[in-house]
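ok so I'm stuck.
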Amino acid sequence: MAVSVVMPALEMAQETGKLVSWKKKEGEQVKKGEMLLEVETDKAVVEIEASGDGVLSGVTAKEGDVVPVGQTIAWLLKPGESVPAGGGHMQSGRKMDAAPAAAAAAPASVAAEPVSAAGARISPKARRLAREHGVDISKLRGSGAGGEILADDILKASASAAQPSAPAATAKPASAPSAPTPGGAVSSIGRIMAERTTQSWTTVPHFFVARDVDASALNATRERLIPAIEKSHGVKVTHTDLIVAAVSRALRQHPRMNGSWANGSITINADVNVALAMAVEDAVVTAVIKNSDRISLGEIAKQRKELAERARANKLQPADITGATFTISNLGMFSVDAFTAIIVPPQAGILAVGAIAERVVASNGMLGVKPMVTLTLSSDHRVVDGVRAAQFLNDVVVALSEPDKWAR
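replied:
not stuck anymore, here's the structure
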């Protein structure tokens, strides 16, 4: 049976994906598991593997195209097969799923596309943006398949309308100030990331709790474990790895903190998958360490290193950026003392980690100098209240103060 290659849904609320490149040419033989294409989301450029064998045929999307999730963009054909009638919107045949969410999201995404006043299809996101920016969609020609109006088209139209018309050269006074220098183009990842963080900040009821933590035991444990971990896993253990391990074990004891808010209800996630915020070019991606509460410290360090390398090389896989139940953002390496982070929906929380630095602190009525770090927890008040957040953060602090009990 012919295998349809569809634009995958790699995250919740994703409506479109940008085709960055094809790894195979039309007419070329493809084997299951080979890299077939690269797709750009708001989190990363992700490589998509072929889920079947066949000859790449009927390619309808070219590099740079923005395609609705679930739309067929090519086929993998066996000898004697031909591209099914219906082209890019054909939903029969066996789909090539890049992630479990892709198959479930595809029919809804295609069926839910409304039509503009001019007769062109328009995505729900684009229609919402058009209302917010006052863009007349009847005058637009979309960049999507068949002229579909996408969110990018609305944002570009809004930006163009906001630009004042250039005055005639003869009418410009000699004393007129020079035009401001453009700040530079924003990548699709950076722009969508800005949109998503704005949406989170304006729709999720954030609240914050913070603790200053004595990092003496953490430092001592890290130094003691480095030789053994490097020998067994070939990777150095960082403070981030220890924090991931401590947070993961605390999440196991506080299931609400590991929960999600979606469709007006709370979902308790069965697995603990901690994501790490990583800076890449002009954006931030969140790469996920799966089952981080059940793997060793060495395995956490190994996964973190591999994820960071793939993120810097724009080689993250779909599994690398999906399934997170909690996020950690560590800016300690940039000498940041403390900060608050914005929650990544539908997760219930994100932990912001500052730098470990020596401070003068009081202990047992005496002043002393100790290495301290500030942890700031951002929580979704729909999922957890202040008491639950404080109890969770306290257990994280206790774990970091007693790493000998769990760090292996």
